[in-house]
Every structure is written in structure tokens, then in C-alpha cells.
Amino acid sequence: METRYDERQDVSMDVESKAEPMRSDHERPPVLTGAEAEAVRVTRSATVLVNLVSAPFYTNSQVPYGISLPEWRALREISAHPGITQTEIAEQTAQHIMTLSRAVRHLTKLGLIEGHVDPDDRRRTRLYTTELGEEMAIEMQHREGVQARHIVDGITPDEVDELLRIVAKLVHHVRTSERPPPPPASRDWRAAIKR
Is the CB of residue 97 less than 8 Å from the CB of residue 90? Predict the structure, then answer.
């Protein structure tokens, strides 16, 4: 008799066990192998971690404070670096400039930040928190610290240092190297899915 995996069951495996995880009938063997498969595993794991970190933001911060995650990231940078520009925030946080521009507009409308034209370059606007914005930023940073501490408590201080070193190395690599173009699409998929 065939055993099927039931997602409703709480199935746990012994960590020391060499047993292969059960596959459902519709699961296919992996498409990628070798270095590409390992690279995809790394980036997918990083994505899962980022999603787990970001997921509680709506409940813990957006609801009580009324600002979105991109707005919080902008406010945090402006609080930490008074006089920063939108371009500098985009470079530091790797946020898309249009997302950041919307965030800055909304934060300004809410009275949390204000912009001042740079006297040395009138094309640039330097951003600062208002008194209200700074008060909110300080409080939110404390709340963020509690959440971040919970996440990092899962690893040792030495592992934290190693993780920071590896992430910094990856960020530097991605920012300073040219990405290879992906292989061409095998067909016009946009047209195919519209049929």
C-alpha cells in the first residue's frame, strides 16, 4: 500500500536520519544540478528568511504606525543619516528608485520628513526627519531591535559575524560584477499564456 504525504499531519524527521524526504506523485526530479542548483538553494533560502523577517511588519508596525515597509526603510535611513538624498537611500538599501520616491512623498505628506534643497547643488534635495518623524523612528527602531534579536538568537555570536561577512561579500559581488543574461526564452510565453 502506497503512503501519501498529508500536509495536515505534523511529520518530523530525525535530524540524524539519512532517509530521503517523501515526494508526492506530482513532484518531478530537479531541473538544475551542480553549481546552479546550489546557487538557487542559497538565494531561495535567503528569500525565505527575508520573507519571514518582513511578514510580521504589517501587524507589528504598519497597523499601529500607519507606514508601509518601504516607507519605514526610508524613514530609518533618514533618521540614521540626516541630510541623505533619495539616490543615496536607494543605493544603501537596494530599493527601486520609484518605490522609494513614493515612500518619500508619503512620508513628507504625513509630516514625518522634510526636504531641503542642497545649497551646493540645487538639483539635490536633502532629507531630514521632523520632530514627529524622529520620535516615531526611534520607537520603531526599538521595536525592530526586539524582532531582530529574536531572529539572530537562533545562531551563535560567531555565526552572526560569519553571516554578516558572507552577506557583505555577496552584496559587494552583486554590486560590482556584471550579471550574465539569462538564457533566452524558448518561446513567446506572454503570447502563450494569453491564449
Answer: yes
- Give pLDDT tens digits along the chain (195 positions): 444 434 334 433 344 444 455 556 677 777 877 888 899 999 999 999 988 888 888 888 888 999 999 999 999 999 999 999 999 999 999 999 999 999 999 999 999 999 999 988 888 999 999 999 999 999 999 998 898 898 899 999 999 999 999 999 999 999 999 999 988 999 999 899 987
Q: What does the CA dihedral 77, 82, 87, 89 come to, rounded to 10 degrees?
A: -10
Whole-number Å distance between alpha carbons of 179 and 195 = 33
Cβ atoms 128, 78 nearer than 8 A: yes
CATH of domain 63-171: 1.10.10.10
- In the structure grid, which three cell numbers stand for residue 167, read together? 552577506
Q: Where are the domains of the chain?
A: 63-171
